[in-house]
Amino acid sequence: MVQARHLNNRESAMAATGKPLSKNDEDVGLKDRIVSALIIGVIRSLTLLPYQTRIPVGGWVISRLVAPLIGYRGRIRDNMHFIFPDMPEDDVEQMTRDVPDQIGRTLCELFSPRKLVETARNTPITGEGIAAVDAARDTGRPIILVSGHIGNYDIVRSKLIQRGHQVGGLYRSMNYKGFNDFYVSRISQVGTPLFLRGRRGMGEMVKFLKAGNAIALLIDQHMTAGAPLKFFGKTAYTALSAAELALRYDALLVPCYGIRQPDGLSFKVVLETPIPHTTPEEMTQALNDSLEAQVRANMAQWLWVHRRWKAQ
User: Fold this and answer.
1) Cβ atoms of 216 and 156 closer than 8 Å
2) For a pLDDT cut of 70, what percent of the chain falls above it?
3) N-to-C CA span, the chain
4) Whose CA is closest to 120, among 268, 255, 264?
């Protein structure tokens, strides 16, 4: 019997391709390991803190140390000036601190899955869509939950799983494989299945949806091939896929949000009235309008570091 052993990076590449790693491949692999180790090390060090301390500290680290280094503040200023040209500069500067703070808090929550699930268990759920979502679950009707990068969207996923829903999530692979593996291992503890964005993942997600389950999608990133809809009065190219899937499989299409509360640690889950089935464009515009209303009410909680508008 041949003894099984772990392959190192060079051996793994040779086994997969039959060719040795090039110098460039080795450099990329080394960078992946170094960057992944640094990110994971920071996250693990934060998890040594009590949860009530960990979350605000994570917010402070991203807001005060990371954001200025990676250009977040500049992107936030650009978006504020583009969407709110009359906003006082003091308010713009406050947003450059508050938005990264929210990002840091959310990241700490995502990498504290057991505490996130516990938080979701204690989170109130409100909104006119609750009865419709529960009725769809009971009758086996597919459900498409749509949110944006506001508050903490995984609070919604966890809360609905706890209410007896089967909820699948679509995720995008991180740039660094080592960190991506760590990330997926954590968000999987909130609930499964998770589908990797791409042809295969989309196929698995559609199969899951057709079986009468729920899927959770985010629609607030720029999509070059999307429809030129409106968001904050500006043209924002938006994917129509959520509405198209709802029409194709007679799925309930529900805007939903996990909104952070003033204490910075707790949340409120909001399930809004399902979007009526009309055309993909009209339905997706309704989703954009719903998200815009939530962002206006909770300005610092949206990911204003996105390059959301084509005109920019």
Assistant:
1) yes
2) 90
3) 62
4) 268
Q: 165 and 99, same structural domain?
A: no
Residue range(s) defining the domain that contains residue 30: 23-113
Together in a domain, 55 and 135: no
Q: HSE, CB side, 13 Å, CA atoms: give it for residue 225.
A: 1
For 249-300, the DSSP string reads HT-EEEEEEEEEPTTSS-EEEEEPPPPP-S-HHHHHHHHHHHHHHHHHHSGG
For the chain, what is the mean pLDDT?
88
Quick check: 83 and 232 in contact, CB under 8 A? Answer: yes
Each residue's pLDDT tens digit, 258-296: 999 999 999 999 999 999 999 999 999 999 999 999 999
Last residue of a domain, one of 60, 95, 113: 113
Q: Which of the residue ranges 110-114, 121-125, 234-238, 255-259 would you say has the lowest mean pLDDT?
A: 110-114
Q: Is the pLDDT at 28 greater than 70, yes or no?
A: no
Beta carbons of 147 and 257 less than 8 angstroms apart: yes
In 82-232, which ranges are E strands? 125-126, 143-147, 167-171, 194-196, 214-218, 227-231
Per-residue pLDDT for 196 more than 50?
Answer: yes
If asked whether residues 254 and 123 sit together in one domain, one would say: yes
Question: Of 113, 138, 167, which residue is a domain's last?
Answer: 113
Angle at 76 between CA 74 and CA 82, to 5 degrees: 105
Query: Are 125 and 269 contained in the same domain?
Result: yes
User: What are the tens digits of pLDDT across the range 217-245?
Assistant: 999 999 988 999 999 999 999 999 999 99
Burial, 151: exposed, middle or buried (Cβ in 10 Å; 0-12, 13-18, 19+)?
A: buried
Domain identity same for 85 and 150: no
Token pair of 143, please? Answer: 């459900």
For 206, 291, 308, the CA distances from 294, given in Å and listed in that order, are: 28, 5, 16
Report CA dihedral (225, 231, 234, 240) to the nearest 10 degrees. 20
Give the model's confidence band at 14: pLDDT under 50 very low, under 70 low, under 90 confident, else very high: very low
Q: Evaluate whether 168 touches 239 at the Cβ level (below 8 Å).
A: no
